[in-house]
Structures are given as structure tokens and as C-alpha cells.
Design brief:
The complex is a heterodimer. Chain A folds into two domains: 344 residues, 3-Layer(aba) Sandwich (Rossmann fold), CATH 3.40.50; 35 residues, no CATH class. Chain A has eleven helices and twelve strands. In chain A, a hairpin with a 2-residue loop joins strand 7 and strand 8. In chain A, helix 1 packs parallel to helix 4. The longest helix of chain A has 26 residues. By secondary structure, chain B is α/β, with parallel strands linked by helices. Chain B has two domains: 196 residues, Thiamin diphosphate (ThDP)-binding fold, Pyr/PP domains (Rossmann fold), CATH 3.40.50.970; 131 residues, Rossmann fold, CATH 3.40.50.920. Chain B has 15 helices and 14 strands. In chain B, the strands form three sheets. A seven-stranded mixed beta sheet of chain B has the order 3-2-4-5-7-6-12, sandwiched between helices. In chain B, strands 9-11-10-13-14 form a five-stranded mixed beta sheet, sandwiched between helices. A two-stranded antiparallel sheet of chain B has the order 1-8. In chain B, strand 6, helix 8 and strand 7 form a beta-alpha-beta unit. The two termini of chain B are 31 Å apart. Classes of the chains: A alpha/beta, B alpha/beta. At the A-B interface, helix 5 and helix 6 of A face helix 4, helix 5 and helix 6 of B.
Amino acid sequence: MLRTLSRVSELPIVVKQLQKNAAQSGVAKTNNYATEATVQVNRPFKLHRLDEGPEMTVQLTKEEALKYYTQMQTIRRIETSAGNLYKEKIIRGFCHLYSGQEACAVGMKAAMRDVDNIISAYRVHGWTYLMGVSPLGVLAELTGMKSGCARGKGGSMHMYSPNFYGGNGIVGAQVPLGAGVGLACKYKGNGGMCLALYGDGAANQGQVFEAYNMAYLWKLPVIFVCENNNYGMGTSSERASCNTDYYTRGDALPGIWVDGMDVLAVRSATEFAIKYVNTHGPLVMETNTYRYSGHSMSDPGTSYRTREEIQEVRQKRDPITSFKELCIELGLITTDEVKAIDLKVRKEVDEATALAKSDTELPLSHLWTDVYSHNLEKKIRGTNGFDIDHIQERKGVNH
Amino acid sequence: MLRSRLTQAACTAKRALSTTPNMLAVKQMTVRDGLNSALDDELARDDRVFLLGEEVAQYDGAYKVSRGLWKKYGDKRIIDTPITEMGFAGIAVGAAMAGLRPICEFMTFNFSMQAIDHVINSAAKTFYMSAGAVNVPIVFRGPNGAAAGVAAQHSQCFAAWYAHCPGLKVVSPYDTEDARGLLKSAIRDSDPVVVLENELMYGVAFPVDDNVTDVDFLVPIGKAKIMKPGKDITIVSHSKAVETSLLAAAELAKKGIDAEVINLRSIRPLDMETIFASVRKTHHLITVENGWPQHGVGAEICARFMEDQHFFELDAPVWRCCGVDVPTPYAKTLEINAIPQVHDVLAAALKVLGSKAGKK
């Protein structure tokens, strides 16, 4: 096991409340179980230019446990479904799966407040779901259908929702954009901050360092999150970076290394980071994680790494399995509840998948709809002349 | 020498339009002050508006366009950036996505190439990609086009580059009225707008009436302006080439040719209605620009005629007067000859008019 597990009953410091009635979970069981537990983060945080780090000892309620497990499992199911849809040639173009990295997003989301924002790169199906889009909204966007969260016009890499700024297809470009969202938070004085996510591949883009620099100078409330899954496409981090300790690469910016396969560690680090950036300015957080699939669906993911390596992570470090085992061990979730969640998630995603397949694309008129939010030209040139009218249906949020 | 030519051009333009006899009493304002006052107005009008770029605050702007604004509005609204175009352009776009109204100054548009990904991929496309959810109200501005004696890397026109891209609006002011009114419209617009100023015009003063200095004065984006009406040939241009065109029109007048000079003001949207209406009258058209010919603004205007009924209004082919198709050289004589001169415009007009020119 990765984690020092503590049976709740063995730890006097643990807040343990017995709940007689388990009916609220919908499971007809009469066993007593804990509603809250204290958990020790197993793999220590590593710190750069910080005297104190995140809490190693964290609380986990039953409600949270159920929520995180459901969220991670939903992301996994969405990605499995997306992979299948791609193989069926229903999803076109790009399709970057998040399987294996679920604890990063769920842990960060758990720490985010209503005023906080997030922007990421192209592996965003999971984030889109966490930021309020239904599985159908995600899957139908992938199938290019009108129920998609961008009505099928954005595709795999361009999904948005309130406080979620995409979904960016240009590796590294989202990092200064995220710093800009942070600038807006500070400018408006709303107490919010922005998580700007990028991978170990994007970590070498020059504009990432440009963003670090200005964010530090201007004390912007931004957490630069390097989701290090060890490979930028097919290039291992060692082959791409002179320094693979990504949490130290902000130079003057403090950094935290966190086990990205541990949802509670990520949550704890993010809670710490949110407080930090709102007081002191930006920070770099590296979440050490792993992706099971290739870079995208066209990459089998086995020419630059071994099948054994992938299997080993799946067996020993899987973020969902390890969290599930922890929760069962702690008595926060029962195996029956796990089964019920798995069934519910599978059903929900399967239904969404069916709808995403059977849905229709937008009518052709949407090809020339919403190019400008303040349209000044009546006509848009079609393939064969200035013969189509620019339709403006929406105005966007910024007016 | 340059200054006197510019004043002459301005007066030519004004004379053509003026209906008041006491035009000499009209207030003069430089393009720089037109831009500066536009920034000042809009910063005062909307708290979400802020200016960022290299040397915009404490240095008062590399070309002094933002002079005095830092003292007036402080660090929050007037932000000096390091020399890091891609980074600060990205930050500006992110801030616009999150509800602010950034004005992102490029010290010159030559440096915007470092950041062109954010102008196009991050700013221009987001509204469409998000199916109308996230609009990006941002202004990218700075001097564009050939300056004087600064060689190839600092001398080129980006009008065609940016106007190529759906999702962007592109304006290219010529005089003070244009600069002030277009910049104010750009700042108030809810889409990304590229404002291509001209360094050589910053110090040039133009007459402005009270209407132009009014805080609510706006020049609509997407509308061209007839600088000098005429009936024999239409000359379409933008930015500093408007001056060349006006001077050429004055020379043509000496030959009895009455040229109509159109200042495009906006490159995207391109106001073809005004050009078409002019050609219905003149039946002859030349385009004048300081940018390169291939896929340029003139090339687009030619194509629009080819595809439209107005093709049949033309009595002669449309002709382009453009920058020479080479990187801009440093040596003075070579540099001068790299962009269209008055005699080039004159020659083009006479060529297009052909035998009709002699009859005027």
C-alpha cells in the first residue's frame, strides 16, 4: 500500500462518529461505519523555497469520500467511453485521455472555492465534467453533436464553463492566459485565484517562464500546476528537461511536489497553495502522475515505454483503486456502496454515450454563426462568394 | 521636409471637405495626442480598461503615446511589462476572457510576431470555438509599418497578416480623427481589435473640430472615409499611404484629373460598399498601400471586384501600388523607393486612365 492506513477505531485522535442509519447512502445496510476519518498523506510533499508545506494529516468525511470516488470513477468511465467512441471512428481528430490522472483534477477541484478559476491544456474532458458540464455535454462535444458543451464547435480541446477557461490546443499558451485570469481576480479584488495547468512537455515552453516571471513581479494569485505524467507525447521528461524537478523550475517562485495519484494529497497541497497565492503571489505545484493511454488516441503509447511500466502503475498506484481501498479500510465507504456507485456511474455514462452517438450535429447555418460577439458585417464569404449571412445568436459573457 | 508635406496633405484633405471658411482657426492635434486622449477618455470611462506593455508607464511610452497616464491612473491601470511579448499578450488575453478590458501595447507590431499565437489562436478564435460563450474584448495596438531608417526587421505592415483572420477586427488610422475615434471604438468593442498605428504619423498635427475632441466621439469600425471626393478615378489607401494618395490627387488635379481618395480606416471589416459606390462614379480604381503586394490589402480589393457585379463598372483593370516585394532596406535611397511614392501613384493612375487621362 502507498499509504499508512489507520483503522479509525485504532486512532484516538480520529473523529469517529457512528451512524446508525445508513439509509442516506441508499444502501440497505445496518452496519455501523465512520462518517469522518483522519488520514496521513503517505508520500511526503517536497518543498522549494518554502519553510512550511501543506498539511500531511488530513480529514476525510464520508460525504467527501463518496464524492471524490464518484468523480474519479465518472472521469474514468467518460474516458473509457471516449476511447471506445474514437475506436469506432465516432470521435474525430484529437482525443487525449486523462485515465490515470484523475486524482489530480478531483483533488484540485475539492480545494477550489466558488471564486476560483482553472485553465488547462488539451487533456480536459475530466476537468470539464468537474466544472459543471454533464457527461453528455462532454461526450457530445467529442462526437461533435449539438448537445456538446460547445455545441460541437470546439471539440476535444475547446470546452468551457463558468470559471473554466478551456481547453487549449496550443501547448503552453494556457499558462500566460491563466496568469491573466489571475490578474483579473486581483484587479477585481474578488479574492479568487487561477489554477494554470500544463504538462511536463509544456513545461519547457518559453512562455511558461514568461508567465512565472510576470506573475511573481505582480504577485498574481496563480497556481502554476505542472501535471507531470512523465511523458510529453513520446518524449520522457528526462529526455526533455534539464531539470525534472518541475516544482523548482519557477526559480524565485516557491514550489510544492505532490503525489498526483493521491487525491487527498493533491487536495491538501491545493488548499495550502490557494491560501499562499492569495497572500504572497504565485507558486508552482508539480503533481506527479501517470497516463495509462498514449498521448492521444493515435499513439499506442508503447514505443517509448514498456507495457510492464504501465501495468505496474495500474496495479500499484492507481488513484481510484487506492482511494477506494483506503475508504473501505477506514470504514467510510462499504463495498456495497462502491458497487452501487460503479453501477450508477456506468449507467449514467452509458446513457450519455448513447445520446452522444444518437444526437445530431448543429444545422449547417451554425457554420456562419457567432464569429463576432459584436458583428459589423452582414455577409461572410462562403466557399463560393459572399453569399451567406453572419448569424449572431449569442453575445458571450464579457460585456 | 516631411512635416511640410504632411501638413500639405492634411490641408488638401481638409480643403476638399471643409465647408467653413475659417478653417485655419480650427484646433490642431497630433495623432499622438489623439491616441493619448482616447486612452485617457476610455480609462476614465470604464474601470475595467487598463493598459499594459513595455515602457507604457514610468517611461511614458516608447513613443510617448501613454504620456502622463501612469501618473494619472497609477500602477493598477498602467502596467509596465518586462520584454516578454508572448507572455504579456497571453496575460492580457486571459484577463479579457475573465472580464477585463485590456489594451495590450506592442512597442511596435514587428514584435507582435512573438505573440501572434495569442492574438489569433487565443483571442480571435475563442468566441467561435466556445460557440458564443466566451468573447474576448481586447485591443492590441502599437506602431505598424515601415518607420524611417530602421531596416527590415522593424519595417513592415501587418494589415494583411491580421486582416486575414476571422474573429479579429483590424483598423488602420491615418490622421488624428481616425486615431482617436477608432481607438475609442476599439476599446469599447466586445471583440478583439488590432489597432495598427503609424510611427511616422505620431508627431503630425491635423486640424480637429470640437466634435472630435468630445469624450463620446467615435469612428465606427468597418466604415471607410472619403477624404477627397472626385469623379475620374478612385484611389483607395490606408494609414500613411493616404497621405501619398492625397498628394498624388493634388498632382492629378493639376492635370485636370479629379481623383476620389478613400481612407479605408478599417481593414477588417473592409468597407467595400464605399469603394463600390465610388467606382460606380469613377469607373477606375487603384489601391495604394505601404505593405507588400502578395495577398495584400490591394490584392483583396481586386479580388472583391472580380467577384462582384461592380467588375462591370470598371473601364480598366484595377491597379495596385504597393511596397516593393523585398524586405525593407536600411540605405536611405533604397528605403524611400521601397514604398510607393507620389510619382508611383501618379503613374498608376495615368496608366489606368489610359487615353482618358489626356482628355481631362
